[in-house]
Amino acid sequence: MTTNLTQHFLLDPKVVFLNHGSFGACPRPVFEEYQRWQAKLERQPVEFLDSRRGLEANLRVARTALAAELRTAPDNVAQVSNATTGLNIALQSLPLKAGDEILTTNHEYSALEKTLLFIARRTGAKIVQVTVPLPLTSADAFHDAVRAGITPRTRVLFLSHITSPTALLFPIETLVAEARAQGIWSVIDGAHSPGHTPLDLDALGADFYSGNCHKWMMSPKGSAFLYVRPELQAMIDPLVISHGWTADNKEPGVRGPFGASAFVDEIEMQGTRDPSPWLAVPAALEFRRAHDWWRVAAECGRLAQETAARVSDLFGLPPLSSPEFSAPQMVAMPIPACDPLAIHDELYRDYGIEIPVFEWQGHHIARLSCQGYNTREQMDLLVRALGDLLAQRQPRRKQSQG
């Protein structure tokens, strides 16, 4: 990689950090802005948390900056602490009943699989899980696999935009459009998407979309959003009823008690909590602009794909997708069958490498994230370490001559 921005991050220099996808890493200037907000809160907490004296205005600044990045209106985006929370708000607001079907795939994040199970048990709805064929090499094949699960009882389409276990970038656009045409609510898990792939939420047209800012957008931990199309905001009930709740309807144009849309106020105004991570989102966006981060991300993507190809060649195991369906900076690399926790621990103990290693539906995977602070030398170390630890588990292959 031609650009390395290690000096801007607070990561332990003794650790080869290849797991940005789990919790991200916050650049130093963004973290300092986050701490500035926290210090301001502690200097005068009553004034800071009083909506009339600045809180609502500060929240609106962050919301407006993020909405511009997501290409939607500020009243369509509400602050939440993480994507799981946002998706729970959306899913638990849907008026499902016994016999309704929730269509999803076998690549979803485990926490949200539990959310769907909870909702199914509470409402009597049925979860229909389709298998996305691997390797994923065709948008049509993905569309057809999911489309085959739609029935007259389908009420919800729940999809990851970028999958957590398999690091795939699902081509969801045509399925979102088809769901809309059939009167099916589309709920999209965008936990890994903001800052990782360009988003235009209004153009995408999903009914509900929740994403983290603290992963690839690199804002502080605890900053995320829930997007809801304006005509559906009246459906949304917050998980916690607090100061922002209103008995009035939440149709487009109706303002909440604190001046934002009723949808935003109900979710954001919930008593004492530290909004500093959210208030630092504009600083994260500015950091990305100042360092031309989409260019940095493209370099990271090339390095991630090169490394994945080396690991594939090392073990003779095919990739889970063609490059266009791999997450831009994150690749789930198949490795030989092993005790994944033991390999994870050995990589960390013996090589200082932090990377998730796990088993998923019969596949053993090391999921590589590549961010602007990573280097080719670190990738060389990873390939060498995986070879040291796993090559002996492979059947012997004839050595090439020459």
From TrEMBL:
Pfam families: Aminotran_5 (PF00266)
InterPro entries recorded: Aminotrans_V_dom, PyrdxlP-dep_Trfase, PyrdxlP-dep_Trfase_major, PyrdxlP-dep_Trfase_small
Keyword set, alphabetical order: Pyridoxal phosphate
Magnesium found in the keyword field: no
Sequence ranges assigned to domain Aminotransferase class V in this UniProt record: 33-377
Keyword Cytoplasm: no
UniProt name for this protein: Isopenicillin-N epimerase
Species: Kaistia soli DSM 19436
